[in-house]
Structure formats: structure tokens, C-alpha cells
């Protein structure tokens, strides 16, 4: 069981009305949040800023947050105008699905974007998505990733999957058309706490993909992470100077 914030529900419907009748592309960002309060609030502020910048590019951006820390996370989301759903943190697949379900109910977007609460990027990334949307793509993803360890201030670049998974989009930044979202909104297996990306991939067609290094797509790592930097093959990582990403946190 989970509970949607009724106050945000009313706000969401007003935002939905503003996006109708024009050429705006409606995208809902769907994000579960858990612990890491400093990073969490930095992410929420980052995405709020993107809502303004994406609007200048013809995108009506809404945000659906699923949290598990009661009033604390509800207020963090609602004070920024985001939809909020309270739900247990485990299983994580159900928590992701809850954010998608709320976005569908409140905003009826053209596309759903899946992001973790540790993801930061430059506004230029929206131009990549728009290009593929205009070409008719229904599933768009990113193949590479910059990881910033907030504990050690180390920065690494990962080129993406190899072998059987070569070309598969990474988890953050997957943009999925509403036609591809199951009627139940169960994009992820409800029972899973890991292997979430693979569970969604099984339900989706082949994606149009692009590299996001020039857009400084950063996955920040803190004291609690779904995927640790240590999980990656060291030979597949390139160490970078952390100064190159200072711009992304100022968005």
C-alpha cells in the first residue's frame, strides 16, 4: 500500500492543463528517494531548475517523487511543486513503479523519464532527446556515465555495457513513451530490489541511444547507493579531473 499527497494531486492537475493545446512535449521525471538528505535536496533543486530550462526548449516538465521517510521527504517534494507518493523503500521495483503510476494519473505525460535521486546533467541534454522525439522515437536512452564519489571526491567515466549488453541504455535517463508503459504501470518487477534495469529492458523494444559525456551526465555516489563504484571493472573506468563537472552542479 502507498499514499499519494492529495495537495500535490490538485497542483498536478493544474500543471497538466497548462501543457495542453500547444506543441509542448510533456515529460514526467519519475524518481524514488531514500536517505542521503544533502544529495537528495541538491537533486530536487537541480531538477526544479531543469523544469524552467526545459520549458524554454519546448518541454513541459513535471516531476513525480516516491519517498519513504514520511513528512520529511513529502515536504521536500511538495515545497518544490513535485508530486509525491509515500511508499516502503523495499521492494525498490514497486517504489519505481509507484512514481510512474502517480505521474500517469496526475500528468498524463507523453514520455516518462526514469532518474535516480543522484543524477545531475547539463540542460543541453534536452536537445538530444528532442531530436529523437522529432524523429518519432518512443524509447531513448543513454549509453555512458560519469560517476562522482562525494565521499572521496573522485570522478570516473564509464563507457557503458559491453558483450551481450553492448548498446543497452543505462538506468538513469531512459525516456519512455506512454505507449510503452504497461497499463498497470509495472515497468519494473514489483518484487525486485536489484537488477531493475534488466527487468525493465525485458519489457521494452530496442532504444535509440546517445552518449551523454558532453552533457556531463553525472551519477553521484554517497554513503548509500544502489550501485557502488567498486561494482565496476576498474579497467573499464577512466579517472577524470573533478573540476570538469563543477558546471553541472550550478544548473
If you had to describe this structure to a student in words, what would you say it looks like?
- With 251 residues, the chain is of the alpha/beta class.
- Helix content is 29%, strand content 23%.
- It is built from 6 helices and 13 strands.
- Helix 2 links the parallel strand 2 and strand 3.
Distinct helical segment count: 6
Low-confidence stretches: 6-21
Number of beta strands: 13
Helical content stands at 25-40%
Rounded radius of gyration (Å):
17 Å
Distance, first to last CA: 36 Å
Strand content: 15-25%
Order of helices and strands: EHEHEHEHEEHEEEEHEEE
| Strand arrangement across the biggest beta sheet | 1-4-3-2-5-10-7-11
Mean pLDDT: 91
Please tag this protein with its features.
alpha/beta; 8-stranded mixed sheet; 251 residues; globular
Secondary-structure map:
Blueprint: E1 3-4, H1 6-18, E2 25-32, H2 37-55, E3 59-67, H3 71-78, E4 83-86, H4 92-107, E5 111-114, E6 119-120, H5 125-134, E7 139-142, E8 145-149, E9 154-158, E10 174-177, H6 196-201, E11 208-210, E12 218-221, E13 237-240
Parallel strand pairs: 2-3, 2-5, 3-4, 7-11, 8-12
Antiparallel strand pairs: 1-4, 5-10, 6-12, 7-10, 8-9, 9-13
Structure summary:
By secondary structure, this protein is α/β, with parallel strands linked by helices.
